[in-house]
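Continuing the series of single-chain predictions for the mutant panel. This is the parent chain; the variants come on the following pages.
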Amino acid sequence: VDGRAHLVELSEVSVRPEPHTGPGAGPVAFPARPGPAGDPGPGAAPAVLHGFLVDLGPGQAVTEAGDRLPRAMLSVDRLGRVTYANTSAETLLGRGRPELAGRVLWEALPWLADPVYEDHFRAALMARAPVAFVARRADETWLEVTLYSGHDGVTVTLDPAERPVGLPPGAPADRPAGPLGALTGRSTGLYRPVALAIALTEAVTARQVSAVVTDELLPAFGGRQLAIYLLHERHLFLAWETGFPQGFLDRFDGVGLDARLPGVETLTTGRPLFFESMEHLAAAYPGIPLDAHVGARAFLPLIASGRPVGSCILGFDQPRDFSPEERAVLTALAGLIAQALERARRYDTEAALARGLQDALLPHRLPVLDHVDTVGRYLPGTQGMDVGGDWYDVVETGDRIALVIGDVQGHGVAAAATMGQLRSALRAFALGGHDPAEVMSGTNRLLIDLDPGQFASCVYLLLDPATGRAQAVRAGHPQPLLRHPDGRTEVLDLAGGVVLGVDATASYPVTELTLEPGALLALYTDGMVEQAGADIDTGVERLRAALAGGGAEPLAETANRLIREARRAEDRPDDIALLLASRWE
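Parent structure:
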């Protein structure tokens, strides 16, 4: 943007709505100033960053903030490229931003191309903790280098330093810093596997793994095409592609392991295949269809712990030589990708099993009742295993009905199985005519006897539809909401006991309440109101306001609207269960 870099690495940022001032106050608010359309403008809340208030408005202001720092600072992405340099860095290094921005750090600063320094960068990436060391520049001056690792890269600060004590004249710190040449390639090459490995640990599904390879591996080597095939019953099936002509790879989808194709033979032999030009590829495999006449290709076997997983194809637009270092790095990266894909395959299998379990255990339909309408919704989480132990239920018990909401700790098959057992137990106790306190106490003892290593929260409400009188018990679960006929919506104050599965002697006091005609009761699990970095009371108040604003809309539309609003939270880690009950005459 306007010829200058504007990226600043931020960590531990919190919003402070009012400037902190006064004697001895650390943060000082920058003056509010108007900005162009789309900027926060006057009054926008600044952010607190390690004791300083930083204006998160226009990019120019961010650059100016970095330039005020007396220390030299660089920002490096996970591929080792410099994305930002402040004025102090330009002065200290004797290089302007255009000479630094976009270049790999070890190419821009050759004196950092040393295996010892490379170890420090790897340590910072893996430990996510500050790492400091002393490095010698080409002019024999010394700098203290401090690395602050984050999710998307590393912030580097540089300070003049004295020569290390006890170092003989003419000797560098730790070991000699050899000429650039192979060391630069080695440093950048060995930095990439660590960066890719970190990104792969965060990928859960096969699609996420493939996206990481596209975002991290292709740019690192200048590739333009990527295809990943996975092995299933002695056939290779296309799982991901990018950069190839539309439909070109369809002809290779589902090929058997007896086909003479480079993508097959690299897996069956376990050897990577490199072709410096398309002519070399055509000569090695006469008659093979080509998607281009100019370029180069690398075929990598995806093998995890000796088990074949699939194959990976990297494409380049221009002919190129694959150096021994590049071949070694690509082969190592293929092993990392294979491990991640194998882990993703196990995840997908468990997720499918858990989804099937949960679909079978949740109610397929709720009973049609006189005087009461009910609607239930379930929404899986957005992170990790996308099913869990949340459930809802409506049980007819003679002339009354039981409304149930519950949440088993954890996610996956174990949580879904425990949820099924608890739902069955609650139904059995309810149908047996037990009062709410006995239902909750009996379910608590059952969970302890089962000893699944999990606990659960629950609300159980027994309602007489004709009169609206209800008895409710609560075991460590969020308080329900009640919207009165006049629209006033409140958070109920149900007496509660400890979560289920902890104390076999626990008791659960009963709270009595009345649902008037036109009243709406909302039972929900904590995923509905919890969000990272926010107080749960804020989430409850947000849900209360959303429920109050429903007006006279149908009950199903109210449920859909509340779920849509919850779905907007992309970082919502937990799943959600919602049960609405509306009483009418």
